[in-house]
Amino acid sequence: MVLATLAPLQAVAFGLVALGAPLVVLTRDPLRQALVNGIYGVSLVCLFVVLQAPDPALSMLVVSGVGYPLVILAAIARVRGKEPGEEKKEDDEP
Amino acid sequence: MSRRIRMLVLGPALAGFGALFAWAIAGLPAFGDYRGPYGFVLNRVVVPMRHTTNVVMGTTFDVRGVDTMGEEFILYAAVVGVTLLLRDETRSRQAERRTRRLPNETVRLVGVVMVGAGLLVGLWLMAFGYITPGGGFQGGVLAAGAILLLYVVGSHRDFRPFRNEHFLDPLEGVGAGGYAIVGLAALLSGTAFLTNLFGLGRTGTLLSSGSIAILNWASAIAVTCAMLLLFAEFLETYVVPLEPEDAGS
Q: Which domain holds residue A62?
């Protein structure tokens, strides 16, 4: 019973990952990209759980959810702090 | 280089890479078809031989314990590198003056609850790493992240005890060095490096798995301190240049 549900679940998890990766690349705004990357990390966590690998899932969760975003966010804070006018101008452009 | 030339270079490179990638994928074993003997052997021998119910931990901290020590020292070296590049005493004092708090009380309340919950889950992952999924690395990063939330919901001053390098530096050394010392203790007693010397205890309890438990705690301390040091150095470096603008606005 469990095994029968596993294959579709795996397909859904793989699909989410395949969908998430281009989304991360196609997001242009760095701040938004950091958030999308975090969500993509959660989709990878789902994949690892579905593939019955809880230890890598936990590692992925803490790295993509805690460690990595902080470094990116801190870097963005610094770049924005230096040139706030330029960043704003880029955002306003259609 | 113009866009046209770049596309001309990219096109063949992408096609070539795509072809090789497709070839590699086509040659993979079928999905879910595991062939290697190691996984099967480990699944059978780790629990009876090492009394740990998490075979992954038994593998990383015992069967291939030397590799894990190398990984731990990679993190240690990375933190040392970041610290050497970024640490600046005057800046850490400046950073302290920035004490702007989050305006929204609800967000702060949720944040404070998350600090406690994150710390608890982190400690649980560390402590039960060799019984259920988890371990020193996962628990350590989570605990450090929970402590970092203090900075977000509180201020740099609340976070101060957790970025005190006079306290974190030695503790980081104890964590990273403790791993090597457990290995050397085995060497001194006349067996191979990192041999599991300690009593194996009863399977499935916290008092089990011998030196795996000690190595797990050593790496938990090392990872927690490493992440806290990283957060502290990054925050100091990135937050302080914003100071004049905050004062201006």
A: 8-92
- B48 Cβ neighbours under 8 A, 6+ residues apart: none
What is the per-residue pLDDT across A57-81, written as a single tens digit (0 to 9) for each? 999 999 898 888 877 877 777 666 5
Would residue B19 count as lying in a domain? Answer: no
**Measured distance CA(B38)–CA(B44) in Å, rounded:** 10
> Can you tell me the ipTM of this complex?
0.77
For residue A44, being part of any structural domain is answered with yes
For A81, which of B138, B230, B242 is closest by C-beta distance? B242
Q: A55–B138: do the CB atoms touch at under 8 Å? A: yes
B165: tokens are: 């390098």
The pLDDT tens digits of the residues spanning A15-67 come to 999 999 999 999 988 888 888 999 999 999 999 999 888 899 999 999 898 88
Distance CA B228, CA B174 (A): 15
Q: Are A49 and A14 in contact (CB under 8 A)?
A: no
Let me know if residue B167 belongs to a domain.
Answer: yes
- Best of A50, A70, A79 to disrupt the B interface (most B CBs within 10 Å) is A70
Give a yes or no: residue A2 inside a domain: no
